[in-house]
Amino acid sequence: PQTVVVYTLSSAFNGVQRNWYLLSHEFFQERSKRAPYPSPMTTLRTLRYFSLWNQTVAALLQDLQPDVYHCMDYHAALAPLYVPKECRVPVILVLHNADYMGIVETDFINNRFWQTVPALRRLGVVFNLQKSAIRKYATFEGRFNMLKAGVAYV
């Protein structure tokens, strides 16, 4: 298991309490100021980044039980798939980059494991999800798509 450090920032404005949760892990540090997310999307390490990010967000959703989950685009759209049914919260999904649409081109990943294990199985291992969940919620037009999970959940 990976350890993610969670930092909390809070403020109040007009009587409304606001909280922000900042996640820290070595995977999350591998980006530049010009690119807030790792690139390219065709590396196994990048998929692991998004897997850990979504699983951490899901753990926070379970622990905090917010009134609503404000999901900012495809980056954390898989998180609801990790939350048990009894802990689920309403989701607001905001799209910031409609051209990208959350598609991940997994065919270009050059890794021995990746090339020798069937597609749904390897995605299941990396994302810690059942093949049936990936097929139903994270596959669109035959490709792995993180945004579809958020859309299907909403």
Instruction: Give the tally of β-strands.
Output: 7
Order of helical and strand elements: EEHEEEHHHEEH
The residue fraction in helices comes out at 25-40%
Largest sheet: 3 strands, antiparallel
| Main structural class | alpha+beta
Roughly what fraction of the amino acids lie in strands?
A: 15-25%
The residue ranges in which pLDDT falls below 50 over 5 or more consecutive positions are: none
What is the global morphology?
Answer: globular
Task: Trace the largest sheet across and list its strands.
Answer: 5-7-6
| Cα radius of gyration in angstroms | 16 Å
The CA-CA distance between the termini, in Å, is 29 Å
What integer is the average pLDDT?
84
Number of helices: 5
Produce the secondary structure layout.
Layout: E1 5-13, E2 16-24, H1 44-64, E3 69-72, E4 91-94, E5 103-104, H2 112-116, H3 119-127, H4 131-137, E6 139-140, E7 143-145, H5 146-153
Parallel strand pairs: 3-4
Antiparallel strand pairs: 1-2, 5-7, 6-7
